[in-house]
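Hi P.,

Sorry for the delay on this. The queue was packed all week, but I finally got your sequence through. Input first:
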Amino acid sequence: MIAPQGRHVPGFGVLRSCIVVAATIALVLLPLGAGRAGSLLDILKGGSSSPDKDKHDKKHDKSSAKAAASKHASAARHASPSKTDHVKVAALGPANLPASALRSGAACVPAKFRIVIDVGHTAESEGATSARNVPEFSYNLRLAQQIAEKLKTEGFAATNLLVTEGKAKPSLFRRVAVANDSNADLFLSIHHDSVPDKLLEDWEFDGKKSHYSDRFSGYSVFVSHSNADFNTSFAFAEMVAKEMKARGLQYAPQYTMPIMGHYQHPLLDKENGVYAYDELVVLRKTQMPAVLLEAGSIINRDEELQMESTERRDTITSAVVDAVKKFCAPPATSSAATATAKSP
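Then the structure:
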């Protein structure tokens, strides 16, 4: 389950050079590493900033790219790797463009497409507790491992499973830093849902006092307007949600309800269940398209049993992997649409 978080500002990578030639495909070599020296330091300082400053920072960080790139190329993101990984990126045409450019019509190369599958929470801060006293982290780890393994078998060899240690708040900053330093193309955080404490009811399971709420169930998908590439984040979130819905799963409706208090969030896609969570650190501070999936409710006694089943995990895994495939694939050119456009 996700909870409100503080805001911290990591540093952004610097675009060293970008040459655009109208009649040819540019070859761009970018030394990545110089722009990130203060990133982790800024995160660990814990300094907060106002929304206006965040907007100013984003505007400043994007200005050099906009001045040098075309309409589609300006959407491309250039994050840097860790200090020990000295990498240069050669943009050899559309196949190597990062995720932020994919929705503009370019295809990715699955084997080189860097996906971070983030395991929500940590062994030290396990998140929510299920109706039968199982920590959320256990559910998150098992499902995230299965998704990462399935992606690799489907050709996405550069998929990385991100398991973070430590207490809740510091772990958020660490996972953001790792994702940004890894030059990832896509970030997906896996969670399982609960409800606010005021909605919990008491019961006893296996001789132990427990809590449950059978009032709500279903998955939810979250994005942040403050993400470096909100449009692409939202596009992928919709793909995940549609794949979940196509497999007969229902999304959780409660996040629009006043009873949720500070857990209430705007519903961006009322057909498929995509919500905005603008202040969530792992969504707003990652420098690549980022999405958080609440796979289902473990505080609901019936759905908890379903989430334990191999069938439900297989269903969710299939939905996520198919969404990634569609996200990575080039938009189909409709011959029928072309024929219609040409007809009188």
